[in-house]
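Input (structure):
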């Protein structure tokens, strides 16, 4: 590389993001899309991802926190943005000022939003949150009528949507997910029973988009799938997505280690024969997790090699055996090189976590390069 940038970086392929969006859009047919771009768009860059999605026609976006919604508005994003988490009372005015869409997870919160909107002489856009089995935020499905009733009596609200969230749509056994969907639809009968139009209904996350088509309803909320990571194994026969993020580094040091000399903190790996070790400028402070120690593989010149010894805060050692590698050679931490490929799911498996945590753990120290 002939620039002065850090020799560890992530490439973000926005064209792949666009293709994934189209693939999911095609899969869900008449349902509308609400891409979920919380947590810096799962590490892919909040504004860059939002801008692309807005450009290609995403009708709305979703984030977790109001701060993320404010960052989007400051970045010039104008489509409707739903904040999926509950609003803290003192932050309600921020929603109103920046026209962010509320989630109302309780009767109290709904009334607070109505009061604040009334005082500000405006109308708040609200989605009501029903808990159908996650036991996180939301009014229990068996009490949903009280929330729906209260909403009807509020004068400064537009009840745009009603939603719920799956706890186990990524399970092999979909019985509990189906039960949640049933409970949600049962609660929604309130509107038919009162001859009222039903607000926009949404429930499906990535796993449900793939595994439970009957949960697509009016709107879907894809996160992980949009970034090209399969929420459950073997989804490619249903929808084909490509990884948007790849993660690369470079060889910065080479040495020969004699048999019997242990490597790294704690000396957790010891070569039986003399071997060649290269060092990479990436560590757990970049999000290359310590749990990958002695478990992960990387690709150098297209070949798989093992991470040996403990991953350090800023450096990681690789055993290249009898092969050759030179300072400046590119190393794939996530991505493909020739026929070999390392996925976010691989990293998750090696470090006993989920793909979500791998993606959202790649820290700000790792520069992102966005490809249009
Ligand atoms: C994060 C989130 C999603 C997206 O989930 P994925 O599994 O990444 O598709 C959808 N809905 C809610 C409420 C969320 O918090």
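Output (sequence):
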């Amino acid at each position: 590389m002939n620039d002065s940038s850090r020799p560890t970086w992530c490439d973000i392929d926005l064209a792949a993001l666009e293709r994934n969006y189209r693939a999911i859009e095609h899969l869900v047919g008449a349902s509308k899309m609400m891409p979920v771009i919380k947590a810096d768009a799962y590490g892919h860059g909040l504004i860059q991802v939002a801008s692309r999605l807005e450009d290609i026609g995403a009708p709305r976006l979703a984030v977790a926190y109001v701060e993320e919604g404010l960052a989007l508005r400051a970045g010039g994003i104008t489509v409707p943005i739903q904040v999926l988490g509950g609003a803290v009372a003192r932050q309600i005015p921020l929603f109103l000022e920046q026209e962010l869409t509320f989630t109302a997870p309780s009767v109290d919160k709904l009334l607070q939003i109505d009061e604040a909107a009334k005082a500000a002489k405006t109308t708040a856009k609200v989605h009501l949150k029903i808990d159908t089995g996650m036991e996180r935020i939301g009014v229990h499905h068996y009490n949903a009528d009280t929330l729906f009733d209260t909403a009807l009596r509020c004068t400064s609200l537009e009840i745009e949507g009603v939603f719920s969230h799956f706890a186990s749509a990524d399970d092999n056994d979909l019985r509990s997910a189906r039960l949640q969907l049933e409970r949600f639809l049962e609660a929604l009968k309130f509107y038919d029973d009162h001859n009222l139009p039903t607000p926009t209904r949404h429930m499906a996350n990535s796993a449900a988009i793939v595994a439970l088509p009957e949960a697509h309803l009016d709107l879907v909320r894809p996160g992980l799938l949009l970034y090209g990571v399969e929420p459950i194994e073997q989804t490619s026969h249903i929808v084909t997505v490509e990884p948007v993020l790849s993660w690369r580094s470079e060889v910065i040091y080479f040495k020969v280690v004699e048999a019997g000399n242990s490597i790294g903190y704690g000396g957790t790996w010891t070569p039986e024969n003399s071997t060649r070790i290269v060092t990479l400028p990436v560590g757990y402070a970049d999000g290359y997790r310590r749990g990958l120690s002695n478990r992960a593989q990387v690709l150098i010149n297209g070949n798989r090699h093992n991470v040996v010894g403990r991953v350090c805060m800023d450096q990681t050692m690789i055993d290249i055996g009898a092969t050759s590698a030179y300072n400046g050679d590119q190393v794939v931490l996530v991505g493909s090189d020739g026929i070999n490929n390392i996925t976010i799911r691989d990293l998750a498996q090696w470090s006993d976590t989920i793909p979500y945590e791998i993606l959202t753990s790649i820290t700000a120290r790792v520069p992102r390069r966005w490809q249009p």
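Notes: Residues 64 and 84 are 5 Å apart (CA to CA). DSSP finds eleven helices and 19 strands in the chain.
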